[in-house]
Amino acid sequence: MNDPELVERAMILREKGTNRSQFLRGQVDKYTWVDLGSSYLPSDLLAAFLYAQLEARAQIQAKRRRVWEFYWEHLKDWAQESGTGLPVIPAECAQSYHMFYLVLNSLEERQGLISHLKSQDILSVFHYVPLHLSEMGRRFGAGPGDCPMTENISERLLRLPFYNDLTENDQARVISAITKFRAAGRNTAIAS
After folding, report:
1. What pTM did the predictor assign?
2. Taking the CB of residue 110, how many other CB atoms lie within 10 A of it?
3. What gap in Å lies between CA 162 and CA 132, rounded to an integer?
4. Going by DSSP bridges, is the β-strand pair 187-189/125-126 parallel, antiparallel, or unpaired?
């Protein structure tokens, strides 16, 4: 924290709204509830689950990498031909294999592809509402037009199914449905 005036309050918030940190430092003889706060610690059960995942991190990342690379290999030519964006990972960054997305040419094209995939029982979702357009962002005075690039990308971004045990057969079905989709001035699917 770069503002020393906020440090004490941050400790109180972290300590469930109590001045427990002051008590532990001997600054007060007992601690009590003095402000808002919450419990930010995971339960023992969640901590154990996280620990097991951390122990299996290499295997989990290998599965996620396989899913990501399969999408990349099988969609890169289609994306180039259709003018669709794929994830960009700068050379100086490590890949997290968190998700795989498409950046389509327009909101209408994205919505058309969502409908096309849904008609084949494939779930795809748009990514997020930009933070400045969220309820909280608007409370800070932000609104439409404040971040035009973010707004533009968020309207065109589409997340594909992505989870550790997604099989190549399931991915092939997703890829087949995507590559049959075409938007040439209108949203249509190529007849099978």
Report:
1. 0.75
2. 22
3. 27
4. unpaired
